[in-house]
Every structure is written in C-alpha cells, then in structure tokens.
Design brief:
CATH architecture: Up-down Bundle
CATH class: Mainly Alpha
Strand content: under 5%
Order of helices and strands: HHHHHHHHHHHH
Radius of gyration: 19 Å
Oligomer: single chain
Number of domains: 1
Structural class: mainly alpha
Distance between the termini: 27 Å
Number of strands: 0
Largest sheet: none
Shape: elongated
Helix content: 55-70%
C-alpha cells in the first residue's frame, strides 16, 4: 500500500508473464531449495579465522537484533510479517490498483521469482563453500564464552548451520526483494528523480539487512557484501527480463 501512496501518480511497469511455465519454474526452484536445505555442508575449517577486513568488526554478539535481521531478509520468518513478503504483496497491490488484478499478480510473481532464484543460488554456495560463521572463532569463544556455550551457538554447530556463512542468505534475499521491486517501480515512470529514489532506497534497505546480520554476530562483512551483490544482480535482472521493452 505504501508503494501505491508514493507512486500514485504513475502506472505500474508493463510486464510480460508466461504464467504456466513460470509458475512451474517457481515451484521447481522452491522445491530444489528445500531439498538443498536438507544437505549438510561439506567438511571444512571448523573455526572461523576472519581476514583483515572482516576482523575490523570481529567479534561481536548482539542477539537482541535477531528479529530485526529476520524481518529485513528472511521470507519464512515472523509468520510472514517480514520485508520480503510485505514488499511482494505491496508491489502486487500497487500494480493491481493502477492497472489490473492480473498485473498485480504478475508483479508479485516476479518478485517471488527473484527471491526464489536467489535463495537457491545462495544455498548452493553455502554448501559448496562451507565457511564457518564468526561465532566459531577462538576470539569469539574467549570474548563471549557464555554465548559460545549457549544453546543457540551449540545448536548451530551441531546442526552444521554454523558452517554456512558465505554468502549471507538474509542479505541476498533482501537485495533480491528490494532491487526487483525497485526495478519494477523505476520502469513505472519517466521521472529520473524517482528512478534514483527507487534504487537508492533498495540499496539502503539492503545495507540495513546486511548491517543487522554483521551486528548480530552471525556473518562476516564479506558474507553480506557478497549476498547483497548476488541478490541485487538477480533481482534487477529477473525484473528487467519481464519488463516490456
């Protein structure tokens, strides 16, 4: 609804949608992701050893920010009350009001495709790279011994999710959401100021998602940078592909 208020003077972008094929493709990508999610990452270094850039903010532990980080970038958290889901619904409402219900559904499906493709690629990279999260480092263990021995970290280690740090999934899905939405909104107007505002907002929101993951203490800065680049490229490309040229 916010998108409609801000862009009520414009029409939604004209998009092409191959309903049957893309719906099947989306279901296939989503199913592949859930299958990948059952695979344990390959054996790797069991202790994080942050390099020069990553070490600038290491270690830190701020679990109170976990809900904010989930809100910004995890489409399956908080019972659907999160930025990826709300953005997907919002762009659909905007297009549905300014054009037609079918266009609204098309816009929502495009954002959903962007998120699904991104999380599938992200999960595949996590499994193949198997980078330890920051809280596995010796420095973290010495600085936050209670947190390291606590139920969350130990569960992450036992379930091996502690070795799926690169790239950041929350950040990549946030970037896919915001940049696919920004691309659709930017192509709804000829006003260069609002085009810039669309992409600028996407960059800021993606940055907030990445900051939250680093601040929480579950990702290295390079994890979130890679996630932002991955999700941003996929999101913008998928949306651009659907826009009528």
């Amino acid at each position: 609804m916010l998108a409609y208020v801000l862009f009520s003077w414009a029409n939604a972008a004209e998009v092409n949608m191959h309903w049957t094929g893309e719906s099947i493709g989306l279901a296939t990508v989503a199913g592949s992701y859930f299958l990948l999610n059952t695979i344990e990452p390959r054996p790797g270094n069991l202790i994080a050893n942050p390099g020069t850039f990553d070490s600038l903010v290491h270690p830190q532990w701020n679990p109170e920010i976990s809900n904010f980080s989930d809100f910004m970038g995890h489409p399956l958290k908080l019972y659907g009350m999160n930025a990826p889901v709300l953005s997907t619904v919002g762009i659909g409402i905007f297009a549905g009001i300014t054009q037609s219900p079918q266009d609204g559904l098309a816009h929502s499906l495009i954002v959903s495709e962007s998120i699904a493709i991104t999380v599938l690629i992200t999960e595949a990279l996590k499994l193949s790279i198997a980078r330890p999260r920051p809280f596995t480092s010796e420095q973290f263990q010495h600085t936050y011994p209670d947190a390291y021995q606590g139920p969350f970290v130990q569960h992450e280690i036992e379930s091996r999710d502690a070795y799926k740090s690169f790239p950041s999934g929350h950040t990549s899905s946030a970037a896919a959401t915001f940049f696919s939405t920004a691309t659709l909104l930017a192509h709804s107007t000829d006003n260069n100021l609002w085009k810039g505002a669309s992409y600028g907002s996407a960059a800021v929101l993606t940055g907030l998602a990445g900051w939250a993951r680093v601040r929480y203490g579950v990702h290295h800065p390079t994890d979130v940078i890679a996630g932002a680049l991955l999700g941003g490229c996929v999101g913008a490309t998928v949306a651009w592909f659907h826009i009528e040229k």
